[in-house]
Amino acid sequence: MKKLLLLGLFLTGLFWALLTFQGLADRGEYRSIVLDFREDLATGQLEQELGAIAQTYGIQPTPNSVFSQSDHLYIVEGDATMLKALRRSALRQATESIAPNYIYHALEVPNDPDYPKQWNFRSINLEGAWDQAKGKGVTVAVIDTGISPVTDLQDTQFVKGYDFVHDRLNAVDDNGHGTHVAGTIAQSTNNLYGVAGIAYEASLMPLKVLDAEGGGTITDIAEAIRYAADQGAGVITLVWAAVAIVRCCERRSIMPIEKGQWSWRQQGIPTVARRHIRLVIPM
């Protein structure tokens, strides 16, 4: 019992340090602010708070997406000055958090024609792994710039995704990064074209959170993670650089899958698991 208590205190302290450490919590680019209203607010109370914000600050709060209203999650345009004003206002009593809507960016991918072929599959004994499984029955949510219907994904299985950048069903890739990632995961294989995918019998769920320039907000990312978990994804991938860890991401991403375990690997990769769900975020 004593060991469990000490472990609990250690993890609590570590988690709090990660949320409050200035190097992680306050760096990053943002042009809007996340208002996470208390979910116990009645509809009339919420509308009153939204109206007060518009009247006091001259900005109109809007839901982040069609999935946001039931969670009372709203976005307003604003900078550090506006963020400070909102946090000091009476709005604090009606919200669970008021946080920057940080923008994340994809890592650069070389445009060399044969670059995707440079993955050294043999170094991870992939040919041996294929004798055991090829990903059949697993849905992989690709949270990125979307996926385009390129030739070497024509035989790949897809499930319904969503474009959180433009708030629409069709998550088309206008950047290329997400399609590259999708090909690495489940590119059509044994079709006498291009190269092979790692788990080419898996199904892909395209979730677009990054725009044509490779940037996207933390709110879209958090909602995409929750969407993927709710829609039955077995694996959730986020293959791009993170610049901040904020309370919004913790609440909207981690909380829906809180029944699993949170751990930090030696390589610095946070992993969250709930039943068969696995979330991997390279930091």
Short summary:
The protein is an alpha/beta fold.
Features:
283 residues, alpha/beta, Alpha-Beta Plaits, five-stranded antiparallel β-sheet, disordered C terminus
Notes on the protein architecture:
With 283 residues, this protein is of the alpha/beta class. It folds into two domains: 24-101, Peptidase S8 propeptide/proteinase inhibitor I9 (Alpha-Beta Plaits, 2-Layer Sandwich), CATH 3.30.70.80; 115-280, 3-Layer(aba) Sandwich (Rossmann fold). It is 29% helix and 22% strand. Strands 5, 6, 7, 8, 10, 11, 12 and 13 form an eight-stranded mixed beta sheet that branches. Strands 2-3-1-4-9 form a five-stranded antiparallel beta sheet. Helix 7 (218-230) packs parallel to helix 8 (247-254). The longest helix is centred in the N-terminal third of the chain and has 19 residues, at 2-20. The protein is elongated, with a radius of gyration of 20 Å. The chain starts with a helix and ends with a strand.
